[in-house]
Amino acid sequence: MTGPVEIRRTRQPAPVLEIGGTHVTAALVDVDARRVVPGTRCRQPIRADASAEEIVDRILGCASRLEAPPGSRWGIAIPGPFDYARGIALFEGVAKFDALYGVDLGKILIERLPGRPSEVSFLNDANAFALGEWTAGAARGHDRAVGITLGTGVGSAFLAQGSLVDDGPDVPPQGWVHLLNFAGHPLEDTVSRRAIMSRYADIAKPAPDVILDVREIAGKARAGDLVARRVMDDAFSALGQTVGPWLARFHATVLVVGGSMAASWDLIARPIQEGLLRMETEVLSRLVLTQARQPEDAALLGAAWYAAGDLSDLDLTASPAQALTTRRPL
Question: What SUPFAM superfamilies is this protein classified in (predicted)?
Answer without folding.
Answer: Actin-like ATPase domain
